[in-house]
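Whether sequence alone determines local backbone shape is best considered at the level of individual chains. Part of our work consisted of pairing the sequence of a single chain with a tokenised description of its backbone. This step matters because it turns folding into a mapping between discrete strings. For completeness, the protein is quoted in full, as a sequence line and a line of structure tokens:

_____
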Amino acid sequence: MSERPPLTEGVYYILLSLYEPRHGYGIIQLTEEMTKGRVKLGAGTIYGAIKTLLDRGLIQPVDDDGRKKEYVITSEGKQMVEHEISRLMELFENGIRITRGDKID
């Protein structure tokens, strides 16, 4: 597998938010809810990220039925999230081991 750069926290939460179809404001709301208000995404950030994620094939639009445009994560986007979770788990586990004084093999 080729190396993938780490996701920014904002992009990570945008991708997580799109496991179900959502529009931009829904992404903002869910991100704030998941992070208990710690991460606040602005509209400019959201719509710039959506364009980039669309261009990279990590999300796709849901059929437009006249409502606000909604997006959903693609299978490639899900792979990216799974890779990021593995990376973060390694980071977390190494931090726990070091702070507990465990020996690194």
Summary: The chain has four helices and two strands. Helices lie at 9-17, 24-34, 43-55, 75-100. The chain has one domain: 9-100. The mean pLDDT is 93.
